[in-house]
Amino acid sequence: MDALELTRFDLMSLVQRNKLKFIELQFTDIAGMVKNLIIPAQELDASLAKGIWFDGSSIEGYARVAESDMYLMPDPATFAIVPWRASKDATARLICNVNTPDDQPFGGDPRAALIRVLAEAKEMGYSYSAGPEMEFFLLKAGPDGEPLMPPVPQDGAGYFDASSDAIAGLRSELLQSLSSFGIAAEAMHHEVAAGQHEVDFALGEALSAADNTITFRIALKAIAQRSGFYGTFMPKPFKGLSGNGMHVHQCLKYASTGRDAFSDPGDPHGLSMTAKQFISGQLAHAKSMCAILAPLVNSYKRLVAGYEAPVQVSWARINRAALIRVPRSADDSPTRVELRCPDPSCNPYLAFAVMLAAGLDGIRRGLPPVEAKEENPYLVDAPEAKGNDLLPDSLDAAIEALEQDQIVRVALGPYICQRFVEAKHLEWRSYYEEVSPWETAKYLLSF
Questions:
Q1: Residue 33: inside a domain, yes or no?
Q2: Is a pLDDT exceeding 80 seen at residue 440?
Q3: CB contact burial 91-118 (16+ within 10 A = b; e otherwise)
Q4: Which one from 111, 247, 336, 409 is the annotated catalytic residue?
Q5: Which of 5, 10, 43, 55 is catalytic?
Q6: Mind listing the pLDDT tens digit for each residue in 107-125?
Q7: Model pTM?
Q8: Domain span at 413
Q9: Residues 175 and 290 in one domain
Q10: Catalytic residue status for 320
Q11: Considering its fold, how many domains does the chain have in total?
Q12: Catalytic site includes residue 340
């Protein structure tokens, strides 16, 4: 019996043992929105063997009518029982790859894009791990479960403050749910802003890390609703408060030995030449990556000076405001490179794909190391800050940079790149043409 058949046998045994009624087959669209197809549990074996057909043209921007036939191919490694489903509706989920009718990866599948770049890293002799730190707000909800408008934070606590019993209960349920999914969360705590929280994930293989990021977004929404709150990953929901970031810790290891490729104990910063070239690659492509890592109009209201979000294209060892930071690692931990501009609205499959592609480009081209900038990069006008590039200040500027960057475009693939750019141009144009309350309050009576 081959490994695939054994896996199918094991999964069917789990279905019977846990009396599962339904299976959710999940995938994401290009924007990172989760889509799913629910099948009766008895259909699982057939879906593992043959996949499940769906109409790709019914998902906006996903596929044209002429190429609409798509197949969801479940990844058995992602099987997990959904912990918040009642026993009478006991449900498991499987994350799927999207294939074309000729059994090839669909060019518009974000998960396939990451798998492709991970394969390139393997060809170069590396494995890539990621560990996101995801920030989110818990908001007060109305009787319908939707957030009050204007939104109101659930609490007035601050950084690392103790939480109310209600929030503590939500955290406990959330961490237990993540454990049920096999997700290792290192910590969860209150963040700087009122109602803001953060969960930190352990470093893990990048594909699993992206799967886990999507799973956490679903879990937070579901558990917050069950607790009478509303959870949001919107990058900047409040003026004057810190926004939601998704700092990503990254590690390269040699695929053949598992040895840390970023570490050099003899270097002043503890970094190997490979690590320095990886950092140089990410700095070189930082502006164009922003379109993927900070993909909303609202994202650029977070990436401003004064709120602990990066503004300048720089790296540092101890400066927590740098775009890239190299935190100190314990003796038994791999050396990490932390990228700080992503926010949790991004599609993690595409985000990790372009981040890895940028770093590999630095290694492949042997880019020279960039000097660390330990001064406060928020002081944009300070003499020591002169000459530092700035991140894009709008979605429009980020998309323009993306269109000019061949490495990032290739990492996305032509199908995803074209549709992503088209969608974001429309989003920017819609925002640009909107007349805001600020404008009417500022100008209506003045002119």
A1: yes
A2: yes
A3: bbbbbbbbbbeeeebbbbbbbbbbbbbb
A4: 247
A5: 55
A6: 999 999 999 999 999 999 9
A7: 0.94
A8: 116-438
A9: yes
A10: yes
A11: 2
A12: yes
